[in-house]
Glyoxalase (Flavobacterium lipolyticum), 216 residues
Amino acid sequence: MKLKHLQIQTNNIQETATFYQDVLHLSILEKKSNSVTIQVGESVLQFIENLQFNSIYHFAFNIPQNKLQEAIQWVTNKVDLIVIEDATVIANFENWNANAVYFYDNNGNILEFIVRYDLNNAQTEPFSSLSILNISEIGIVNENPLVLANQLITQHGLEFFSKNDNSELFAAVGDDQGLLIMVRPNRNWYPTQIPSTSNTTEIYIENKGTQIELKF
């Protein structure tokens, strides 16, 4: 499953465009007075301005499986990585066979670089913004994560993420390429103490050759 296009909100288009272009060195596809559209590997990230918006999102980017240390060095020259515990910045997801690091964008959104060792995506080039492969996860907040996940599976032919222990509190739909992460409101976004809240989100997915549009 691939997350082809993600549309979320910001209360400051100009600052957001500056962060993603000048700090993360991603390409701006289009900038309007109330929106900015950004190329992120094979995915597109679009921010829509809502001056009253006062919340945050959590989303992740896949990076090559052999580039975690290079990515850490690259990104720490630009932003502060979020400390997991005991000065460690690398999260280990043993069941997912993955490692991740986290940082904030200008909006306070929690961004994540994740390496998934079951994907055959190693690269030889030095790490840069061009090494960011795609948007791999987006957090969706819902009172009933498991119910929502089952609805998406039934309606759109999606599947539970086989590596995840899906529950009424936390459910993941998709695969290593792309995941919808569903959590209950006020569950802290890992690895922070920031409680999750439900925000307007639009996602275009490609799954087994089928295009799917989801709105939350």
User: Anything to note?
Assistant: The first helix runs from residue 13 to 23. Residues 143 and 184 are 5 Å apart (CA to CA). Residues 2-215 form a domain with the 2,3-Dihydroxybiphenyl 1,2-Dioxygenase; domain 1 fold (CATH 3.10.180.10).
